[in-house]
Amino acid sequence: MKSVFDIINSEIPNDQTIVLAISGGPDSMALFNLLMEISETKKFRLVCAHVNHKVRSESDEEEKKLREFFQNKNVIFESTQIDIEINDNFHNEARKIRYDFFNDVLNKYNSNFLLTAHHGDDLLETILMRIVRGSTLKGYAGFKTKSKSNNIAIIRPLIKLEKQDILNYCEKHEILFFNDSSNEKDDYFRNRIRKRIIPILKSENPKIVMNTLKFSDEVNDANDFIEGIAKKEYENVVENNILKIKKFNELHSVIKKQVLRIYLLNNYGDNINKLGDCNIRGIIAIINSSKPNLELNLPYNKKIVRSYDKLFFEEEVKKIVVNDILDSDYNSEKFKIFYNYQGSAEQNNDFMKLDSREVKLPLHIRNRENGDKIKLKGGGTKKVKDILIDKKVPLIIRKNVIVIVDSKGDILWIPGLYKSKYDKKISEKYDIILKYAKKD
Is 162 helix (H, G, I), strand (E, B) or coil? Predict the structure, then answer.
């Protein structure tokens, strides 16, 4: 058990409060006993936190016995119960509730250290599950001896022990524990791996668990190295939460995957697991597409948008509904149209000079519509949609493009973007000057 003592001594300073996740099974009860041994030489305050999953009929009785056991040991015992429907997502939901509870206990006792009883066989099971189901490089490594979540250190002191080592320890020291009957059922994928696959692997190589630990360390080291490079590249590729596709595509494929993972993690946070492989493939397809404007709906009502060289998460855009007469200055939350501008009129697309004899007043301002066409100065017409595409106007902006029309319905101007044949040069006769001013 020297490895357990070494991990605790190296990872946890003296005079700390430690929260131990205690299930009541042999692993966590063995870890508790080891902590009691260590406490003789290392000072710490121990809090045991138990989650009653309410899956087995004996769960309530076990919780009661655990409470009595720790009270007799003068050890703080906190518990909670999970009351959720058992379905395909039960384990994920239960895990979230479990760690939310642990965080509450950590905060209550002002602790930054959570100990769990994961051991070498657990690591092997986890890696095999992820190989079968698919994962990331980090996922294929399983879990580390120590990981960080915000300011919390999650430490797994038993990681270098095999399950049989723990059972032998419990027998030798006559440690109280409860067997979870659900571990014998074939309903769960992890149980099937534990019962059917791992015995075969151990028969081929009795050192498979320790070799798995070495494998995990190697993959974690590689992942840490890649993450370090990706974090530096991320600063060059992503600005104001907009991913620059051209720079992104210049990266090595391994770094690209990691940069994309960081980008999605920054936008999804704890809900990152809601993104499935199909979502990731869809995002990559958008990035690699030759089409300049694409959208993809994602979980949690999020939408990712490609607009030319930019990829970004579209925030909910408030639709500006415009359909008014324009016979005086027009103010909206996004722009202002000066109707009879008195300053000097420039030739750019923010100004429109009209001869009132050539158009039918009053003028109107409205949202653009499908099929809108504008008359060109050289003759003929052009679809407003094509103008927006030619000018590479992002999809997110196109939704709120407005047009100025006369009472016959002729489109005179797309403010800030394009003018029709009705626009007059400074040298020509005109009596109406319109000016467009975008608001910040």
Answer: coil
Residue with tokens 């099971």: 125
DSSP annotation of 318 reads P
Compute the chain's Rg from CA coordinates: 33
- Alpha-carbon dihedral of residues 119, 120, 121, 124, nearest 10 degrees? 130
Q: What is the spatial distance between Cα 32 and Cα 292, in angstroms, rounded to a whole number?
A: 59
**Is omega for the bond preceding 362 within 30 degrees of 0, making it cis?**
yes
* Amino acid identity, position 225: F
DSSP state of 321: -
Show the tokens assigned to 267. 């936008």
CA-CA distance, 84 to 61, in Å (whole number)?
Answer: 19
In whole angstroms, how far apart are CA 343 and each of 161, 338, 346, 432, 433? 82, 10, 9, 12, 9
Query: Which residue has tokens 């000072």?
Result: 43
Rounded to 5 degrees, φ, ψ at 18 are -115, 135
Residue-level length of the chain = 440
* Residue 227 tokens, joined: 């993450």
428 in Cβ contact with 341 (< 8 Å): no
List, for residues 74-132, the tens digit of each pLDDT value. 999 999 998 776 665 666 778 888 999 999 999 999 999 999 999 999 999 999 999 99
Rounded to two decimals, what is the model's pTM?
A: 0.71
For residue 195, give both structure tokens: 């019962």
Tell me if residue 418 falls in helix, strand or coil: strand
Looking at 1.10.10.10, 1.10.260.40, 3.40.50.620, 3.90.940.20, the CATH number of the domain 2-215 comes to 3.40.50.620
Gap between the Cα atoms of 247 and 14, Å rounded? 48
CA atoms within 13 A on the CB side of 426: 7
- Which of 16-25, 116-125, 188-197, 222-231 has the lowest average pLDDT? 188-197
Strands 113-115 and 152-155: parallel
In whole angstroms, what is the distance from residue 46 CA to residue 32 CA? 9
Fold (topology level) of 323-438: Phenylalanyl-tRNA Synthetase; Chain B, domain 3 (3.50.40)
